[in-house]
Write a structure and sequence with these properties.
Layout lengths: L9 H34 L3 H11 L6 H14 L3 H13 L5 H13 L3 H14 L3 H15 L1 H6 L4 E5 L9 E7 L2 E6 L16 E6 H5 L7 E2 L10 E6 L5 E7 L10 E9 L2 E2 L3 E2 L10 E6 L5 E6 L9 E6 L10 E2 L10 E6 L5 E5 L9 E6 L2 E4 L10 E6 L4 E6 L9 E7 L4 E13 L7 E2 L4 E6 L4 E6 L5 E6 L4 E6 L7 E6 L14 E13 L7 E3 L13 H16 L3 E8 L6 H21 L7 E7 L11 H7 L1 E9 L2
Parallel strand pairs: 22-29, 31-32
Antiparallel strand pairs: 1-21, 2-3, 3-4, 4-5, 6-7, 7-8, 8-9, 8-10, 11-12, 12-13, 13-14, 15-16, 16-17, 17-18, 19-20, 20-21, 22-23, 22-26, 24-25, 24-27, 27-28, 30-33, 31-33
Helix pairs in contact: 1-2, 2-3, 3-4, 4-5, 5-6, 6-7
C-alpha cells in the first residue's frame, strides 16, 4: 500500500493557521483565567488555593518566570519556604528580576541545608542590592551563615525521637503538659480546610503521656470547651496547678481593626473549662499576639507579638501577674533577645530558663531554638536544631520533654519530637601538692608537715585553707575554668606561691570515660629561707641602649618582685642595678643609678610603700665575673638584683 503526499493548498494553510491561533488564544485565555483566580486567592491569603491555580496557569503562561515567583511566594508566605526553592530558582533562571526573589532564594537554600550555596547567593545579592532593608538583612544572613561551623560543632546533650505513634500527615506542634496529659496543637481532621496552607484549622488536643509515647499510639481528643469550627486555636500554656490556661485564637475578622490572632484565657472550674475570654490589657487590636508561656511560678506571662514599637517582626514580651490575677502592661525583652527578625514560641524551663525560636539569630534553619543564658541567646545546636524549623521546646521535668520540627524525615508538616537530656559527664578538679622548705647552706630541701596552706582567688581572697599531712602533702578541690594561687607562709622564709588553673583543662564530653571523672593537678611549694644581704638576681631585666625607661619585658619580671613584696610585707629591700666594665666609670655609675631608680619607681607605682625599697646603682664596681672577656661574661655583669636589708619583727 502506498501513500501519496500532496502539497497543501492555500485554503488548507489558512484553516490550519486559524486553528492554531485559536488554540493559542484559548490556551492563553485559560492560563489567564487561572492566573487571575490565583491572584485573587493570593490577595485573600489563601495560599494553598493560589498555588493550585498558579500551577494550572504555568504550562501556557505568557510570563512563566513571574508565575514561578508567585508560586514561590505563596509557599514562603505559608511558612513552606523550603518548598519554594525550585520555584525561586526557576523564576530567576527565567529572567525575573525582583530583589526580594534573589534574597528569598538564598533563604530557601538555607532552609534545605544547602549552606554553601545559600552563602554564595546572599553574598552576591548583598553586593548588588539597592533595597536598604533587604541589603541589611542579607548582610545579617551572610554573617549568620559564616558562623555555622561553630554551631555545627556544638552538640546539645539531647537524644531525640519522632513521636511516630502520635504524629500524622497533618501538623502537630506546641507541646505542653497538664497533669498527666500531653497537650498539643494540630491541623488533623476531620474538619474544614484552611485555605492558607491546605491543612485543617488548628485545634488543641490532649492525650495521656503514656499514650503519646506508646508504640501503637493512644486515644487523642480535642480539648473540651475550647475549640471552634472556623477559627484556629493553638499554643496552650498552663499555670503550675493546671487551672488557668492561656492560648491563641484566630480572630474571625468581624471586629474592625483586629488582626488575625489574640490571646484568650480560660479557667478550669467544676471539671470543665470556662468560656474563653480575651485577656484585657494584653492584646493589641492592631497586632498579632500569640505563643503564650507561663513561668513555673505563674507570676509571669511571656508571649510573642508583632505590635508597633518592636525590633522588627515578632518580638517576645512579658507581663507580670498580680495576686488578683491581673496582668500588667506588657514590656519587651531586651535587644539581646529580640532582633529585626522573628522571635516566637517562647517557653520556660523548670529552672526558669527561657527558650525561644528565632529566625533573626545565627542558626541552622529558618527557625532555630535558643537558650537564654545571662540575658543572651545561645544556639542549642544539633540534634535539637536542623535545617528545618525547630521550635516550641517544652520541659516536662528536668531531663525530658518535647519540641516540634518540620525537619526532613518527619511524618507530616510539623511533627512532635520527644527528647531526653543526657546527663552531662562531670569533671571534678583537684590539686595535690607538697610543701618543702630550703634552708641556706643545705643541699636538700625538707618536707614541711602540719603546716597551713591557703588556696586563694586571683584577687587574693582566701577561698580555703588546709594543713599538710605528716609527709607535707595537701589537697584542694578546684572549680572548672578557674585560676588560683597556692600560698604557704613561715617566719624567716619567703612566702611560697604557685599559680594554678583549670582554664582550658576540661576535656570534651566524648573524651570523658565515666559519668564522674577526676582530674588531679600537681603543685610544689618551696619555702626559701630569707638571708639578709644576700643578692638575688632578677632575670631578664633589660634596658634599651643608654636608657633607663622600663621596657614591657622588664615590667613582667618586676611584677614578680612586686608579688614577692606583697606576699612578704615585713621585709624591706635594696634594688640594685649593675653595668659591665665597658665605658667610663662615672657614666656607668650614673646610668646604673638611673636604672635602679626607674625600677623602684615602677614598683612603688604598683602599691608598694616607698619606705620598703631603696634604689642603688653600683655601675661596674661589683662584677660577678672579673676581667670579663666574652659577651656572655659581660651579660652576667649587666644585671638587676635585690637583697633583703631589713625584716620587721
Amino acid at each position: 500500500m502506498h501513500l501519496t503526499l500532496q502539497k497543501p493548498t492555500a485554503s488548507k494553510i489558512n484553516i490550519a493557521g486559524i486553528l492554531l491561533l485559536l488554540m493559542l488564544v484559548l490556551g492563553a485565555c485559560g492560563s489567564g483565567k487561572f492566573l487571575s483566580k490565583g491572584d485573587k486567592r493570593f490577595e485573600q491569603e489563601q495560599y494553598e488555593r493560589a498555588i493550585e491555580y498558579y500551577k494550572q496557569a504555568l504550562p501556557k503562561a505568557a510570563k512563566p518566570a513571574e508565575v514561578n515567583y508567585k508560586i514561590a511566594e505563596a509557599y514562603r508566605r505559608s511558612n513552606r519556604i523550603a518548598q519554594a526553592e525550585l520555584y525561586f530558582k526557576a523564576a530567576l533562571d527565567g529572567g525575573f528580576r525582583r530583589e526580594d526573589a534573589y534574597f528569598n532564594y538564598g533563604l530557601a537554600l538555607k532552609a534545605n541545608g544547602k549552606y554553601e550555596e545559600a552563602l554564595n547567593q546572599l553574598q552576591k545579592f548583598e553586593q548588588v542590592a539597592t533595597n536598604p532593608q533587604l541589603k541589611t538583612q542579607a548582610a545579617s544572613e551572610v554573617q549568620n551563615l559564616s558562623t555555622l561551623s561553630t554551631i555545627l560543632r556544638k552538640t546539645a546533650p539531647f537524644k531525640i525521637q519522632n513521636l511516630e505513634a502520635l504524629n500524622t500527615e497533618a501538623s502537630e506542634f506546641a507541646p505542653s503538659v497538664r497533669e498527666n496529659e500531653l497537650i498539643f496543637s494540630s491541623t488533623r481532621g476531620p474538619g474544614k480546610e484552611y485555605m492558607g496552607n491546605g491543612e485543617g484549622f488548628l485545634n488543641i488536643f490532649a492525650t495521656t503521656l503514656m499514650d503519646a509515647n506508646a508504640e501503637m499510639g493512644g486515644a487523642v481528643r480535642k480539648l473540651e470547651g475550647i475549640n471552634t469550627e472556623n477559627l484556629h486555636e493553638a499554643l496552650a500554656t498552663f499555670t503550675d496547678n493546671g487551672n488557668t490556661m492561656v492560648f491563641a485564637r484566630g480572630n474571625e475578622g468581624t471586629r474592625k481593626g483586629r488582626q488575625n490572632v489574640d490571646l484568650y484565657i480560660s479557667y478550669f472550674r467544676s471539671g470543665a473549662w470556662t468560656e474563653p475570654k480575651l485577656i484585657p490589657n494584653i492584646n493589641d487590636p492592631r497586632a498579632w499576639d500569640s505563643s503564650p508561656a507561663f513561668s513555673p511560678d505563674g507570676k509571669t506571662l511571656y508571649f510573642s507579638s508583632n505590635r508597633r514599637g518592636g525590633m522588627g517582626g515578632n518580638d517576645i514580651y512579658k507581663s507580670t501577674v498580680d495576686d488578683n490575677g491581673r496582668l500588667s502592661a506588657p514590656e519587651p525583652l531586651g535587644m539581646e533577645i529580640n532582633t529585626p527578625g522573628n522571635e516566637s514560641f517562647v517557653t520556660v524551663g523548670p529552672d526558669g530558663t527561657l527558650y525561644v525560636a528565632s529566625d533573626g539569630l545565627p542558626g541552622l534553619g529558618n527557625l532555630d531554638l535558643f537558650r537564654i543564658e545571662d540575658g543572651k541567646p545561645v544556639n542549642m545546636g544539633p540534634p535539637v536544631n536542623s535545617p528545618g524549623d525547630d521550635f516550641g521546646l517544652y520541659f516536662k521535668d528536668e531531663t525530658t520533654g518535647f519540641f516540634a520540627s518540620n525537619r526532613e524525615g518527619g511524618k507530616g508538616g510539623d511533627d512532635l519530637y520527644g527528647f531526653v537530656k543526657s546527663m552531662r559527664k562531670q569533671v571534678n578538679f583537684f590539686v595535690d601538692g607538697t610543701l618543702y622548705q630550703q634552708r641556706e647552706g643545705e643541699k636538700q630541701r625538707t618536707l614541711v608537715p602540719n603546716h597551713r596552706v591557703e588556696l586563694r582567688s586571683q584577687t587574693g581572697e582566701i577561698l580555703s585553707d588546709t594543713a599538710t599531712d605528716a609527709s607535707g602533702k595537701f589537697t584542694f578541690a578546684l572549680d572548672t575554668a578557674s585560676a588560683y594561687a597556692l600560698l604557704a607562709e613561715k617566719s624567716g622564709f619567703f612566702t611560697a606561691r604557685q599559680s594554678i588553673t583549670t582554664v582550658g583543662k576540661t576535656p570534651t564530653q566524648d573524651q570523658l570515660p565515666q559519668q564522674q571523672n577526676e582530674i588531679r593537678l600537681t603543685a610544689t611549694l618551696v619555702l626559701n629561707q630569707i638571708v639578709k644581704e644576700k643578692a638575688i638576681v632578677l632575670e631578664n631585666i633589660f634596658y634599651d641602649f643608654d636608657k633607663a625607661a622600663i621596657r614591657p619585658d622588664a615590667a613582667v619580671e618586676l611584677d614578680k618582685l612586686v608579688e614577692i613584696l606583697k606576699d612578704n610585707p615585713r621585709i624591706s629591700i635594696e634594688l640594685s642595678s649593675h653595668t659591665d666594665a665597658r665605658g667610663k666609670d662615672i657614666y656607668n655609675l650614673d646610668l646604673s643609678q638611673r636604672r635602679a631608680e626607674s625600677a623602684v619607681k615602677y614598683i612603688i607605682s604598683k602599691g608598694i610603700d616607698k619606705a620598703r625599697i631603696t634604689a642603688k646603682g653600683y655601675g661596674e664596681t661589683r662584677p660577678v665575673v672579673r676581667n670579663a672577656k666574652t659577651e656572655a661574661q659581660h651579660q652576667r655583669n649587666r644585671r638587676t638584683e635585690f637583697k633583703v636589708v631589713r625584716i620587721q619583727e
